[in-house]
Amino acid sequence: MNRNALASFLRTKRPPHAFVLSRTRLVYVGPQDPKKAAPASGAPAAVRVLARSLPPEAFTDGPGGVPVAGGALAGALARLLAEAAVKITAASLAVSDDFVRVLTVDVEEPETHPKEVDEILVWKYGRSFGEPVPPLRLSWQTAGPGATGTRVVAIAAPDEAIVSWEAPFEKAGIRVGALETASLAVSSLGVRALGGEGLVVWADGEVATTLFFSKGQLRFVRTRTAADTEDALQEIRMAASFVGAEALAAAPDASEAVRAGLSGPCAAGPAGSRIVEALHAFRVGEGAPAPAPLTLAGLLPGTAVMPAAAAEETAVLVALGAMAGAE
Predict the structure, then answer these.
(1) Is the residue at 11 inside a domain?
(2) CA neighbours within 13 Å on the CB side: how many for 136?
(3) Does 200 reside within a domain?
(4) pLDDT tens digits along 60-72
(5) Cα-flanking dihedrals φ and ψ of residue 78, to 5°?
(6) How far apart are CA 42 and CA 242, in angstroms?
(7) Reading across the β-sheet that carries 304-305, which strands appear in turn?
(8) Nearest CA-CA partner of 231 in 208, 201, 212
(9) Is 131 exposed, middle or buried (0-12, 13-18, 19+ CB in 10 A)?
């Protein structure tokens, strides 16, 4: 098990190419001028966007419902690369949030006992993937003090699934330099817009992820699937309750903690998400500022995108977040 193989939390310099993979689509984002060096941010100043739809049979459900890719992904990638007509040796790959499972746990001295942390996490992931737990790709990082030790944020997916996502790229001669979720990719941009403090909510489709940052450090992640808008909003409020209770340990009741968590700085996207619209209405109704929009215009106003890519704005934002390097 390689705990650095999935979701590279540490923001190192990334290749100026990225692919965004969902259950229905594969999108490529790369520099319009491959010969021009990317700026220090890691994201090209001007990008071109190519996309291919995936058929319903592109994936089968693996352990825990995590999608395992079949031959259709390789076919879509081959068509994208033929159209791109540029040599790509390395790229980042961002996947939908429901492709992985997230855990937040408290552990005693995790950095001095990494093997023990791995064992604890694998055991806990039995609830997500079933017993016996299948071979996993697992990554975790510390997230500051917790209630009973040091908080650890972990992300995992069955190795079988990740191999199926990566294999077409490897066969095409492309090294997947970073593999992470859409919400983590976007949050690398969103947290800057918040000055390092507050909630970043990414609610694409029926999956909503709430990330909390303090002093620029990721402190908490919660991902939930909710077909009902009110259920999704309640999940975000529960995450905010945790954040609010942590910030206001003396809060007299849970409702005050919820308000505290949701009244602080917040950025949310993508634009047009029904969940984001519900969150906007809730915050405004509670007298809190509306969430800052997670959009290309708001986060990367200087990035030029081909006009034909307008329909792919969500994927473009994810890709650019995946490309972004450390500040």
Answers:
(1) no
(2) 30
(3) yes
(4) 999 999 999 999 9
(5) -60, -40
(6) 33
(7) 175-181, 90-95, 18-21, 25-31, 46-53, 304-305
(8) 208
(9) exposed
Whether residues 84 and 115 fall in one domain: no
Residue for token pair 């990638």: 77
Residues 124 and 114 in one domain: yes
Q: How far is CA 278 from CA 228, 273, 284, 285, 298, in A?
A: 11, 9, 10, 10, 20
Query: Model's pTM, two decimal places?
Result: 0.89
Residue 311: pLDDT band with limits 50, 70, 90:
low
Instruction: Indicate if 194 and 90 belong to the same structural domain.
Output: no
Q: Are residues 271 and 199 in the same domain?
A: yes
Nearest CA-CA partner of 222 in 201, 253, 192, 204: 201
Q: Could you tell me which of 233, 319, 306 has the C-alpha nearest to residue 273? A: 233
Instruction: Judge if 48 and 179 occupy the same domain.
Output: yes
- Domain-located, residue 5: no
Give first-to-last CA distance, the chain, whole Å: 29
Residue 141 belongs to domain spanning: 99-156
User: How many structural domains compose the chain?
Assistant: 3
Quick check: 7 pLDDT over 50?
no
| H or E element at residue 259 | helix 254-263
Query: What is the C-alpha to C-alpha distance for residues 36 and 31, in angstroms, rounded to an integer?
Result: 8
Domain-located, residue 4: no
Average model confidence (pLDDT) for the chain?
A: 86
Looking at the fold, whether 24 and 166 belong to one and the same domain comes out as yes
